[in-house]
Specification:
Length: 165
């Protein structure tokens, strides 16, 4: 799939951040079904992209500090591995209201990019096996496709094996 730079104004904080950074990316929109059980799997199916290339953004609490984990929608987040990746001891999923308030996005549309407060970020190491991956562009029904190296650079992410099947 050819990469292109999103043009024009507006967009979400994530696409605005990508444009400002001069990063190549493609926006993919699809009709979000509010009854969908999994936002990420819905995105993969709607876009016709393998679920191992579509990554979900989860917010966890690692030793009292909110941390972003970006893992394939085909698997789950390994909380122990996440804590270890950032030198922590304990990790638990963050309170959804705290995640929304801190990132500025709603659950199911949290993007690792353009967050209200930049949080430490860990990107699952499997991302590096793909030329491009898809992550939320900042709202339900909108994904952004970009190189995993660009995502890691823009978010200051650590690459670590934090996902599990």
């Amino acid at each position: 799939m050819a990469k292109k730079k999103q043009q024009g104004g507006g967009g979400t904080p994530a696409t605005v951040a990508l444009t400002a950074a001069g990063t190549a990316f493609t926006v993919h929109a699809y009709e979000h079904d509010p009854a969908s059980a999994s936002y990420g799997e819905e995105a993969a199916e709607a876009l016709g992209v393998s679920p191992d290339r579509v990554f979900k953004t989860l917010v966890a609490d690692v030793d009292g500090e909110l941390t972003v984990a970006v893992v394939p929608v085909a698997g789950q987040l390994d909380l122990k591995a996440l804590a270890s990746a950032v030198g922590g001891k304990r990790a638990a999923m963050a309170d959804p209201a705290a995640a929304e308030r801190t990132t500025g996005y709603v659950r199911g549309g949290i993007s690792p990019l353009g967050q209200r407060k930049r949080l430490r970020t860990v990107l699952d190491a499997s991302a590096s096996g793909h030329p491009t991956i898809c992550v939320s562009a900042g709202r339900r029904g909108l994904e952004v496709e970009l190189a995993p190296t660009d995502l890691a650079t823009l978010t200051g992410a650590v690459l670590a094996p934090i996902g599990r099947a």
